[in-house]
Specification:
The protein has seven helices and 13 strands. It has about 270 residues and is an alpha/beta fold. Bound molecules: zinc ion. The site of zinc ion has 8 residues, from loops.
């Protein structure tokens, strides 16, 4: 059986240019979430105008459902709780320097560690995740949780903090996620992001050794450099104020940004 797995990007998902070139093909058949009904090769392309790097298409709802039928062990609520608490604490301490109370929305909360630890600081945790099992578990622990995309979450100006830890690169259209975050944060709100940094020397070293796991990361549609991400944040009314190396996953960066303005719908 095979299915129609990907919907092609007609233009660059960040800047809408149609000046797109091929970069490389990667094997994703060894990935934990791989299913043989999905093509084993990912075609990575680049935008000649804004330098963004992305896959040539994003998954159809059918393919997405098949991929989400499996959950990686580290995405199950409560996974590795005590170690993850230490990793999350580094993040929350940085955010708390900017804003130390209010509602904290974690998008794609996965194992829940960021929300559990934010709760220790006194924030009110709220989680959204497309995995319904995780939402059920979080609710059973007494937390507010929803199984909906951030774009449809309707609580404008509510949140002090929105975290999207290793999430933006999974979104078919990251601009929509940032527009939603802009709408949901209140005037002094803080956005936390983490994701692999393809502009790092560590990334280049993995490429050189042909051991870079991210080209074959089946659920990723984008690879960001710090420069491209900062430009994107500014377009969407966020000012990055802190850069760090992430302890969550390999070769990742983490950024704290503050909401600086309302923006129009100039992106896609
Ligand atoms: Zn572009």
């Amino acid at each position: 059986m095979s299915i129609s797995a990907r919907i092609a990007y007609e233009t660059c998902p960040l800047c809408a240019s149609n000046d797109i070139y091929s970069i490389l093909q990667a094997d994703c058949s060894k990935h934990q979430l791989y299913n043989p009904v999905i093509p084993p090769v990912i075609n990575w392309v680049g935008c000649a105008v804004c330098d963004h790097v992305f896959t040539d298409g994003y998954f159809t709802p059918e393919a997405q459902t098949i991929l989400f039928s499996k959950t990686e062990p580290d995405q199950v609520v409560g996974h590795d709780l005590e170690n993850q608490r230490h990793i999350s604490a580094r993040i929350i301490e940085k955010v708390a320097r900017q804003i130390d109370q209010g509602d904290w929305l974690d998008v794609g909360f996965g194992n829940g560690s960021l929300l559990f630890t934010a709760h220790e600081w006194g924030y009110t945790p709220v989680g959204i995740d497309l995995r319904e099992d995780n939402v059920r578990i979080l609710r059973s622990l007494g937390f507010e949780a929803h199984s909906i995309p951030i774009e449809t979450f309707d609580h404008p100006d509510r949140f002090s903090v929105i975290s999207m830890a290793d999430v933006l690169e999974h979104m078919p259209f990251p601009c929509r996620g940032l527009q939603a975050a802009q709408r949901l944060l209140h005037a002094n709100g803080v956005l936390f992001l983490s994701m692999p940094n393809m502009g790092s020397l560590a990334w280049q070293l993995l490429d050189h050794k042909k051991t870079n796991p991210y080209w074959g990361a089946i659920e990723h549609f984008h690879n960001f450099s710090r420069e491209r991400l900062y430009a994107l944040l500014k377009t969407h009314g966020f000012t990055p104020i802190h850069y760090d190396v992430s302890k969550r996953y390999r070769v990742c960066m983490e950024i704290v940004a503050v909401k600086t303005s309302q923006t129009g719908n100039q992106d896609h």
